[in-house]
Each structure stands twice: as structure tokens, then as C-alpha cells.
UniProtKB/TrEMBL annotation, chains A, B:
Keywords: Kinase, Transferase. InterPro entries: ATPase_NBD, ROK, WH-like_DNA-bd_sf, WH_DNA-bd_sf. This is Putative NBD/HSP70 family sugar kinase. CDD domains: ASKHA_ATPase_ROK_BsXylR-like. It holds the Pfam family ROK. One of its GO terms (molecular function) is kinase activity. Signal peptide: none annotated.
């Protein structure tokens, strides 16, 4: 719908109202409980329109009245009551598929994790076995969901390349998956028909950190995911960098050293051969079966070894290429890179400063995820919630209630 | 202005009308002469609103009536008259500042180059001397401008890093400029007060190719500028990738070979040390004073030498990093890279195919600029014309007419 179509054409009034309804909800979802005055100011609509929209969201069971004492974000003027997301409102299932474990959560509006469960995944497991394990975790997290809370959809974070058009996993190198329609596999194991979205873990980490983590208020950020392999999610101009097919951000395969080690992609000396989990594990003589838990292994170090310091420098050198290319304001180091940065931050910063151009260097900050280890999980929740912000009435129309008993049957 | 503000609030009707006026103009500027039916369909407004907007553009002297025989783009139904940009309508000055020469053009709506002039620039010239040379070229190209055609502004393409907030040239390495306010220098030399915008040459090349060159209809493209140094302009999701300060796209300084040659940026083995003009000139034993004309030098080759073939492979290898990072649909090779690609296209393609990941590789095409050597020049015109598409009434209100006699005075 073009903006022009919204200007007063009667046939579009309903579409405009639903769009505004979704926008109110997006504000409350992103920024938390908010007074009507604040909503009026943010959306540029008049007070009676806002009151009508808020009333409708309450009737739909999506939001509830919030008192000033509950920390309602206020606009100008005296403190007033406002709107917050409902306690038993709609929710989504978020899945963070890792190389060694799957985490599944029931997540409500506002990014609230209501229930979570996790289980090991075997890297040499078949996709259908992993799908069945994820389905079991889903059953576990919806068990205590209130019967009248509707399930809007499911989002799945994948450590690999996901085709945007249909969510096909083109390649998940550390799971050794090629062209796997994992969404359908999980639905088949569940026997449930809900909308499913899949996306790359780093892209989802960037999305969640931008919405409610270390990247709030920054429209130029990169989230680097260390999840055995290394990938990047990029937000530029406030939008996700997706590329033609949804594959953008494969920074692990930036050329780093043409004389370097062979990479699983078939090349030699990709950045991942220096800062990927396998390379770091080798450098610190970590056993192969602990590679997928590299973050925990690194957290146990009191001080960095010379090999880790060298890895920190290599991380900084590669980040310099990204800073020269994207001119980000914030670079967030997630997954095991978070643990690495806590150990060798000075080496990373020095490596970056040594190789980045002065102009983009002067405004960039390296930082840790605001959402800890949950960035990609909460990003998966964000893409599943998205239909609620586009048109809450339509999204609730297709949502499923009483999911627990449906799954039990 | 948020979309919500446009929905029927009386105080915003004038803003909406001007926005629509600019949008009509943008369509005609980008796609060429167009029937009212086609405009009605593209903009989703009703016929009488379109008729009113077209009438106002004619009154403003920006557009003229076009007959079907003039190649008017038609919507459904029988061919009808339409609208095209006026012959003596508003124009801008576009400046393509190169390392060895400056090109200046008077450019009208539709990207029509109405008059052009160029002069050599000495790489060791002071900024004020270059500014004076550019001012002389401006005088030359406005000489024959009709007195009643208004000058809207000036756009300048720069082979370097330009700060978006104020157009300061932070670094133009091959001109050896640091922190030069070149826009003010040119205005001082001209003695004329017009809006001036500066931007990086590759960014402008990408913009122009996206608007009317090899990237029309592609919202994911990279334009690589070979202009002594190497830089990239990236369009993603239909928007320019700018970064926090406007410095994004410095792909010449991607790490390519840590054992490689020293780069002027202070590092070693940047991609530019393999595919920059100085490296190629050395490889083909081209004299140093011809480096800035490397494109012409390469055009004179009948067949590529082994050194050039190796450069082609290095170009492909670096492009693979960009394809992995951005997942573009189209990569346009501009400047001397255009000449290089015509000589060693197979090596470039093979180098790319050898190193890019299969998923992003399958949808990417390497191609030559649709605008030949004028991509950055026409991109400079685009940014200078932009105010006309935001609010034509306001832009014309501050435009200067009879510029030729003002400059003569």
C-alpha cells in the first residue's frame, strides 16, 4: 500500500486503522508500557484516535491498562495511565537451533520469555531427528500456556544460509545440511498448522539487539555471531541487509590469508579459518567434542594465552574490513566471540584500530550483546511476531488457541 | 513526516500535495514520458488528482504535454497524451572530480546532459586551484542555458571519503586531500549561492546506474568504481548503503593478502594493492603519468598479458568476498575496471566462481555500466535534483534563474 493510497480514500480506511493498530502495538512491544500521551506524540495521531486504537487492542486481549506506578513511559504533561502488553496475550514459539543444542521458548509481546527448554542436538543427526527433538521441546514450552492465549507463529534461527523466499536451509555447514525444508519437518513432527519463519542466526541476533539490546537507537550496526562458524547480521539505515536471496552477511568467508588453512567451503584462508571455533579450539588445545561449547570453555580461562591474543588480533583485523565496508556505529560480538572479547578485548581493539580507515574508525564501538546468549532466540521471536504489527486483527484471526490440548491430542 | 500524519489532517493537505507533485516528477524523471493513465496506475491516485498535479507541474514550467507519438509510456487502455520533462525546465550542475580531470555538465530532468566541459586536474594541485578550475567549467556549461531555466543546485562526485552530514571531504587519497570543504571552495570561486551536495564517486555511480543504467529494476546492486583507487557503492533493499557517517563501501581496503604490498592507507595487502590502478600500471609497465588514464591504456590492448589475467583472477577473488557479504544480484564494474573486464572477463568470472559461496553465486551477474563513463557524473546530477522530488515548489522557490548573466557580472 503506497502512502498516497492512505490519504482519505474511504475504501482504505479499514486498512489504515489496522495499520495504526499494529503500529501502536509495535511501539508498546519495543519500548514497553507507554502512556496515551506518549503514543499520541510518537504517532502524530490525535488523542481520540489513539484512545480508540488502545481500546480495540484491549478488546482483542492484546494489551491491558497500565498505571503510572508500573513504569509507564510518559510524554509531556502530568503522569497518566497507559497501555502495556497483556499478561495472557498472544505468544510465539522461538527456536534457536545451534550446532550442539536446540533452545525453544514461548515468547510473548515485549520479548518476554515465558517458558524455555533445551536439549542436545547431535551434529551428525538427521534433519528429521532434530525436527522431532525440536517438536518435543515445543510441546514442553506450551504445556503451561493459558488456554485462551493464542499462538501466532513460530520463528526458527538457523546457523546457516536460509533462502528468504521460502525459508529453505540452503546450507548449514556445521550440521552438514544442504537444502533442508526444516520448517515443514518441525510442523510435521508437531502435527500443527502455524506460520513458520526461518532466518539466519546472525541476522536474527542483529534484529533482536536492534529492537531491545545493545543496538537500540543505532540504525547502523553489525552483530557477529560466533556459533562454530562466523556470520554477520547487518542493520543499515535501520533495515536488515538481506541481499537478493537473503544470504547477505557471510563474513566468515571473507578472504583473510591466501596462504591460510583450508576452509570447509572449499577455499583457503577464509576469516573463519582464523577466528572460527575449530581454529580457536585447536589453538587452545580444546578437545574436538567441546568445540560447540567454546564460549563456556573460554569463560573458564583466567587470562589469555599468547595463541588467544593472536586470535584477538585476527578478529580485530577482520573487523577492520567490515568497518571499512559498512561504516557501522556499533559492532556487537555474540556467541563465543562474546567470551573471546572478554578475554582479549585490548588485542581486538588494537587489531581494529591498526587496520581500519580513520574516518569510519572514529565513530565505531565494539560491544557485547545486551541480550546475552538469547539474541538469536529473541530475533526468532521477533520475526514470528511481525504479522501482529502489520495487521493484528488478521494475525489473531489465523492464530491458534488452546495449543497445549491440541498437541496432547 | 510519518505516514499517519498524512491521513486526512487538514493542516497537512498542502504537504501531501507537494509530496505527490514531487512523486509525479520522480516517475517522469526516472522512467521517461508517461501517460496520465500510467501515472494514475503507478501512484494509486484518482484521475482528477493526477490531472491537477500534472497541470501544476506544467504551470511551474517543469513538465510539458507529450503526445503518444513521442514514445509516451502507456498504462492500460487506448494510447493517450501524457507528460514529459520540459525542454527549458530546471537543471543542475554535475561535477565529476577525477584524479586527473574534472568533468562538469549541465543536466536536466530525465538525466539529460545538456552541455558538458572538462579540463585536466593536477594531482598535486591545491584544492583552491582545482576549485577555480571547476568554477571555470561551470561558467562554460551555463553559458547557453536559457535565461528562464532555473538552476536548482550542484552535485559533486569525489574520489574519496565524504562526510554525509556536511559534505566535507575527509580523505581523497589520490588527490592527497584531507578534510577539505570543497563545496564552499567552488561556491567562493563562482560567487554564487546555490545548494551543493558532495558524495563518493562509487556511491553516485551506484545511484545513477540504479536509476537509469544497468541496475534499473534491481534493488540489490554493487557499483565498483575503478578511479585510481577502488571503491564500491552499494544499493540494498533499493536504498544506498551509507553507514553511520557516509563512509561505507571502502572495499579497496578489504584485507586481501597479509603478505602483500604496502598500501597508501598504511596497511599491507589491501585489495587495492592488487587491483588498484597503480598495481595494474606496474604489472603492464604503464608509465606512472598515465595511471589516471588506465582505462584508455587498457582499451588499447588487443589481448591480455599473463599479468593482466592474474589481475583479473584477483579481481574475481575480491568480488567473491563482496558477493558473500552482500548477496547482490548485479555487480557493475565501472571506471578502468570496465576496460579490464572487457579484456579479462573470463578470468574475473572464474575467480569469482572459484571463491564465492554457491547460494549467493547462483543469482549474481557481473556487468558493465549502462551509462559508460558517466555513471558518477549522472549520480552527482541525481543528488542535486533530489530536492525537486521532495517538494518541487520549495526547490524552485530557492532556484536561481538567469545564471549565465549572474556569473558574467
Amino acid at each position: 500500500m503506497s502512502p498516497q493510497r492512505r490519504t482519505g480514500l474511504g475504501t482504505n480506511q479499514e486498512a489504515v486503522r489496522r495499520h495504526n493498530l499494529g503500529t501502536v502495538l509495535r511501539h508498546v512491544h519495543s519500548a514497553g508500557a507507554m502512556s496515551r500521551a506518549e503514543l499520541t506524540s510518537r504517532m502524530g495521531l490525535n488523542r481520540s484516535t489513539i484512545a480508540g486504537l488502545v481500546g480495540e487492542l484491549e478488546q482483542l486481549g492484546i494489551s491491558e491498562r497500565a498505571e503510572p506506578a508500573e513504569g509507564v513511559r510518559q510524554g509531556a504533561g502530568r503522569p497518566s495511565a497507559g497501555v502495556r502488553v497483556a499478561d495472557n496475550g498472544p505468544y510465539v514459539i522461538a527456536v534457536d537451533l545451534g550446532v550442539d543444542r536446540a533452545v525453544v521458548a514461548r515468547v510473548g509481546l515485549g520479548g518476554r520469555i515465558l517458558q524455555r527448554a533445551q536439549a542436545p542436538v547431535h551434529a551428525d543427526g538427521e534433519a528429521w531427528q532434530v525436527g522431532a527433538a525440536v517438536a518435543s521441546l515445543v510441546r514442553a514450552v506450551v504445556e503451561d500456556a493459558p488456554a485462551r492465549s493464542p499462538l501466532v507463529g513460530m520463528g526458527i534461527s538457523v546457523p546457516g544460509l536460509v533462502r528468504r523466499s521460502d525459508g529453505l536451509i540452503r546450507l548449514a555447514p556445521n550440521l552438514e545440511w544442504h537444502d533442508v525444508s526444516f520448517g515443514a519437518i518441525v510442523l510435521a513432527a508437531l502435527g500443527l498448522d502455524v506460520p513458520v519463519c526461518l532466518a539466519n542466526d546472525a541476522d536474527l541476533g542483529a534484529l533482536a539487539e536492534h529492537t531491545r539490546g545493545a543496538g537500540v537507537g543505532t540504525d547502523e550496526l553489525i552483530y557477529i555471531s560466533g556459533n562454530v562458524g562466523v556470520g554477520a547480521g547487518v542493520i543499515t539505515g535501520g533495515h536488515r541487509l538481506e541481499g537478493a536471496g537473503g544470504y547477505a552477511g557471510e563474513v566468515g568467508h571473507l578472504r583473510f590469508d591466501p596462504e591460510g588453512r583450508p576452509c570447509h567451503c572449499g577455499n583457503r584462508g577464509c576469516w573463519e579459518t582464523e577466528v572460527g571455533a575449530h581454529a580457536i579450539a585447536e589453538a587452545i588445545q580444546c578437545p574436538a567434542d567441546r568445540v560447540a561449547q567454546l564460549g563456556e570453555v573460554l569463560d573458564a580461562f583466567d587470562s589469555p594465552s599468547p595463541a588467544l591474543r593472536a586470535t584477538g588480533t585476527a578478529l580485530g583485523h577482520g573487523l577492520a574490513s567490515l568497518v571499512n565496508m559498512f561504516n557501522p556505529r556499533t559492532v556487537i560480538l555474540g556467541g563465543y566471540l562474546r567470551s573471546l572479547y572478554m578475554l582479549v578485548g585490548p588485542e581486538v581493539n588494537a587489531g581494529l584500530a591498526d587496520r581500519a580507515l580513520p574516518a569510519p574508525l572514529e565513530s565505531v564501538t565494539l560491544t557485547l550483546p545486551g541480550l546475552g546468549a538469547d539474541s538469536s532466540l529473541l530475533g526468532a521471536a521477533e520475526i514470528a511476531l511481525e504479522p501482529l504489527f502489520v495487521d493484528p486483527v488478521a494475525a489473531l484471526g489465523t492464530a491458534l488457541d488452546d495449543v497445549s490440548s491440541r498437541l496432547a491430542g
